[in-house]
Amino acid sequence: MAEAAAKQIPFKWEGKDKRGVPVKGKSVAASEVALRAELRRQGVVPSRISKQTALFQSDGKVTTADIAIFSRQLATMLTAGIPLVQAFEIVGNGHDIPAVQKLLLAIKADVEGGTSLAGALAKHPLYFDDLYVNLVAAGEQAGALETLLEKIATYKEKTEAIKKKIKKALTYPIAVVVVAVVVTAILLIFVIPQFESVFQGFGADLPAFTRMVVDLSKFVREEGWIIAAGLGLVGYTIIYFKKRSQAFRHWIDRMSLKLPAIGPILVKSSIARYARTLATTFAAGVPLVEALESVAGATGNIVYEQAVLKMRDEVATGQRLQQAMENTELFPNMVIQMVAVGEESGSLDEMASKVADFYEEDVDNAVDNLSSLLEPMIMSILGVLIGGLVIAMYLPIFMMGAVV
Length: 404
Fold this sequence. Notes:
Order of helices and strands: HEEHEHHHHHHHHHHHHHHH
Number of helices: 17
Distance between the termini: 88 Å
Strand content: 5-15%
Radius of gyration: 29 Å
Strand order of the largest sheet: 2-1-3
């Protein structure tokens, strides 16, 4: 079934419904004949059908944000009483991104063929992880799929929001640094040599500052490719070993948690993800030991991932979650105490949700504060850097003017 769905062709169609109202849309089918039959079954008389094969050759990709939006749409439709297959058809055919449309209609075909929703989702592990599939399976078994999908949608939206906040915290300073490096390189390689040829006609010694900048320009022009190659090699080496060495990944993730300004945000982000995933899985009726298995992979940092796996082993032997969290020495006392209250009162999911809300808001505020702090600092550094190069070039001219 999945193989057949993968070979389906995308079409764009126009026609009229049972009331004679013009309608149009996009669908995938094995052939134009099959699509016409499917449209007639839906009460649509097609007047024009065209293949969109070229569109699917560059259909983009399915992002985690797309999965979050789809989860909310599906949950809303099921809550409104729309049958599952019809809901997939509506969301799939109405999606603007071909890759997402193809994925959803492939899942719809599997469900239509008798596969459970969890089973259909499990065929696409790149987009639906074990946590997602297990929660859907729990919802199907309990006869409360729409309720579980609501929880999944909220979980996905919250985790996507916190990911965007982390990206925002990292992207701005990186972008400014890249711009500063590019502008400085342009000045050193193309602009300063023009001044250097002018200075040679002065017949006098250049100021020390100007001499230093001119020498730096020569070094960058002559040895710059070595620097660029070295930086490229370092970047490639880091990426290579991070993908293939768990020890190196552990070191990178541990060091990232200790970075000034950024480190505390990453810590709060991992705690927020831990709490949000724990609240979602536990509320779905997943046993605590199994829930911690899913929670570990959702923390976003291998240090917290390994700590949660260790907690899972301790909880499996009968230890309380509160004590297991204390043993890791990674969680603030407030988080541990709220989890303890949740365990005592039988409302662990509610307490974990409150922890997640608190830390998600804390991450939000920390990112905004960091941006406010970094903006003037980075602009000052840029001003000193670029301004220093300009002053170095004009200093001999100013000195010559003073002598005259």
